[in-house]
Design goal:
Layout lengths: L5 E6 L2 H14 L4 E6 L12 H8 L5 E5 L9 H21 L5 E4 L6 H9 L4 E4 L10 H11 L2 E4 L2 H8 L8 E3 L6 H5 L5 H8 L5 E5 L11 H12 L6 E5 L7 H14 L4 E3 L4 H10 L2 E4 L8 H4 L3 E4 L12 E4 L3 H12 L1 H5 L16 H15 L2 H5 L17
Parallel strand pairs: 1-2, 1-4, 2-3, 4-5, 5-6, 6-7, 8-9, 8-11, 9-10, 11-12, 12-13
Length: 404
């Protein structure tokens, strides 16, 4: 089958690639796909996750992997701006020479703007996944809402997020409720077998997974105190192996990494892994006794496995969560109590009938709904219709899902 239309799918970090993987694969069955690879994928400190992308898709003749090596190694604000500027120049050259019909991207990472602003200026339609969500404790909110404003189509996890987008005066026919696309892999079970992973990483039977990022808008507790209080609390649970993953590329990530590395030296059974990759991360999350930190995976993916989560601080503030999530501040005593509660037999027993608010359809076809919508709009709507956005001041839910 000849793919007449080309689309571009953007990934800037290990976290969004895992969520986009099934979408990329399904898109390649209908379109010629350019994977735009930028951000931290090329940093050794983050596990050089480009290798996973290359290994996954290099043999697919309908996919072209395009590298944008522009990420500065420093975590300063100046370095972030340099990264964005360099990326924008590279991306502008790409969009000026490419016949791509749409740019698809996910989430709220600051690195996205290096691609989305050039695409906007080159009049490339933008499709945004996971808009309408709320994380009041981080700068991600600004980035996410900015992309809602400039995007032409919106793919949300549930009705609440769709309404949030609609209330920002977006036209409702542009909004589709599809569920979180990264949850498709939970149903496909295409991740590696856990026994082989245990041997590869020397993982014990009982372990706690810790994923903690800088909470950029938490002005009450300094970043060094945030991570130190978490580590002090975790020392009380010596019966469990502690498995740490690296933080995102934000101001404060080096402070967190250095604190974890120091902790690992004094706790020999603990592990620090820069990047598990999506095939490894999901089964590790599934089999964990608990996930601790402030990662979205504790709220979005963990409920699908009924894995308890202790969510610390305000990074995910006001984000919908299931009853598997316990929220707590940075007080050591409170963290210890929350972890003890989450590990208790009674708490886990109450999770048997757990519902994931990010997975309304429960069918593993969230990415397919996105592909269906993109296929429909590119084949049935004019570029003028797609790009000309109108100010809508009323919510009309009946127009949601017009093209899926």
């Amino acid at each position: 089958m000849h793919r007449k239309l080309k689309i571009s799918i953007l990934t800037t970090s290990r976290s969004d690639f895992g969520l986009l993987k099934n979408l990329i694969f399904l898109s390649s069955k209908r379109f010629q796909v350019d994977i735009l690879v930028g951000g931290s994928h090329f940093l050794k400190s983050k596990g050089y996750s480009y290798d996973e992308i290359n290994s996954e898709f290099k043999k697919n003749k309908y996919i072209n992997i395009i590298k944008f090596k522009a990420m500065e190694k420093s975590e300063t604000v100046i370095a972030q701006n340099i990264t964005i500027s360099k990326t924008q120049l590279l991306a502008s050259k790409y969009f000026s020479n490419s016949n791509t019909r749409m740019l698809i991207f996910l989430g709220d990472r600051w690195e996205l703007t290096g691609f989305t602003i050039p695409a906007l200026l080159h009049q490339i339609p933008l499709s945004h996944i996971s808009g309408g969500e709320i994380t009041d404790g981080s700068m991600d909110n600004y980035i996410r809402n900015f992309h809602t404003t400039i995007s032409n189509f919106h793919f949300t996890a549930n009705n609440l997020f769709a309404q949030n987008i609609s209330q920002r005066c977006e036209e409702d026919w542009r909004i589709s409720i599809v569920g979180e696309c990264g949850l498709d892999l939970v149903y496909k079970k295409e991740y590696s077998k856990f026994k082989s992973i245990k041997n590869q990483f020397n993982i014990k039977d009982k372990y706690i997974l810790i994923t903690f990022h800088p909470s950029t808008l938490d002005f009450k507790t300094k970043i060094n105190n945030q991570i130190e209080n978490i580590l002090i609390s975790l020392e009380q649970f010596s019966k469990y192996q502690l498995i740490f993953t690296s933080p995102g590329m934000e101001f404060g990530s080096k402070i967190i990494t250095k604190s974890i590395e120091k902790f690992i030296k004094n706790n020999k059974s603990s592990l620090f892994v820069n990047n598990f990759g999506s095939k490894y991360y999901l089964p590790i999350l599934k089999n964990a006794s608990l996930i601790v930190g402030n990662s979205s995976s504790g709220l979005v993916e963990a409920p699908s496995f009924k894995t308890p989560c202790v969510n610390i601080g305000d990074r995910q503030k006001n984000r919908p969560r299931s009853k598997s999530v316990i929220n707590v501040n940075y007080d050591v005593k409170n963290i210890i109590n929350a972890i003890s509660q989450a590990l208790s037999k009674n708490f886990k027993t109450n999770l048997k009938d757990l519902k994931n608010p990010y997975d309304p359809y429960l069918d593993g076809k969230n990415s397919l709904r996105i592909v269906n919508c993109i296929d429909n709009v590119l084949n049935n709507l004019s570029l003028s219709k797609i790009l000309t956005k109108k100010f809508a001041n009323k919510v009309n839910k009946k127009e949601w899902n017009s093209y899926i």
